Amino acid sequence: MLALVRSEKAARRAVQRQSHDVRRARVRLAADKSTLKHLLALLYLKSGSFTYDAVIDLPDWKPNQAELRAMSAAFVKLSNQESIMERLEVSEELALDMFQDNPFKNKQIPSIAQNHNGKIVLYRIGDFIDISQGPMVGSTGIIGKATIASVHKVESNETDRLYRFQGVALPRGTRLNHFAWSILEKDARKFNDLASVTPVRESTTPAPTEVVSDEEKERSSAAN
């Protein structure tokens, strides 16, 4: 009986520790706004995920576990490259010329320019350039643990092939146990309704395998 009581107490303490870790993780995510905005034009910290909308030339794409895992690995690879994030400020005319093939950006640019003295703020990572008010971190190297958790199809008047990519990331060097991280991943899989678009359907793809950089693995091994 004494052994049973001790086991129950140990189990309660373990649950309390895990819950505390989750709360601390959410506080860190809310506090580190810039880290979560590395590829975003719009973000609500309480939503549980970062997002990026893109038109994919697939009519009804439901990424499988392997595809989500591959995207997560590409994310970690980008982080390890420590690419500089460069802020650019251009005129409305130049922005319209740069994004002339993008119907979404062409609709956004005039209203953005009107509210920012005729200027459009862009961010560049290597050859990739997109519109974002920012601010953003100075380098992808600041990003540590990261997962692309889900992809949702969203409705749009311009196209039937608009998808919302969602994920979660932590600053490099931030330690979090697997249980707490899995809760953050679960939250990131829920459809994140940031804009006026609504979900056509929610992704039912399985959770991706956790992807961690070699540097993170070395730090974890050293700590143990």
Explain how this protein is built.
This protein has helices at about 1-30, 35, 65-80, 90-100, 105-115, 180-190, 215-224, and strands at about 50-55, 85-90, 120-125, 130, 145-155, 160-170, 200. By secondary structure, it is an alpha+beta fold. Among the domains are: about 30-75 and about 140-190, Threonyl-tRNA Synthetase, Chain A, domain 2 (2-Layer Sandwich); about 85-135, Replication Terminator Protein, Chain A, domain 2 (2-Layer Sandwich), CATH 3.30.54. Strand 5 and strand 6 form a beta hairpin. The longest helix is centred in the N-terminal third of the chain and has 30 residues, at about 1-30. One of its GO terms (molecular function) is nucleotide binding. InterPro entries: Thr/Ala-tRNA-synth_IIc_edit. Keywords: Protein biosynthesis. One of its GO terms (cellular component) is mitochondrion.
Q: Strand order, biggest sheet? A: 1-6-5-7
Poorly predicted regions: 1-8, 18-41, 195-210
**What is the fold-level CATH name, i.e. the topology of the domain at 29-74 and 139-192?**
Threonyl-tRNA Synthetase, Chain A, domain 2
Helix and strand sequence? HHEHEHHEEEEHEH
Q: Main sheet?
A: 4 strands, antiparallel
Structural class designation: alpha+beta
How much is the radius of gyration in Å?
A: 20 Å
Tell me the total number of β-strands.
Answer: 7
GO molecular function, one term: nucleotide binding
Region (Disordered): 197-224
Biased composition (Basic and acidic residues): 214-224
Keywords: Protein biosynthesis
Task: Walk me through the topology.
Blueprint: H1 2-31, H2 33-36, E1 50-55, H3 65-81, E2 85-91, H4 92-98, H5 103-114, E3 119-125, E4 128-131, E5 143-154, E6 162-171, H6 178-189, E7 199-201, H7 214-223
Antiparallel strand pairs: 1-6, 2-3, 3-4, 5-6, 5-7
Helix pairs in contact: 1-6
Biased composition (Basic and acidic residues): 214-224
GO molecular function, one term: nucleotide binding
Region (Disordered): 197-224
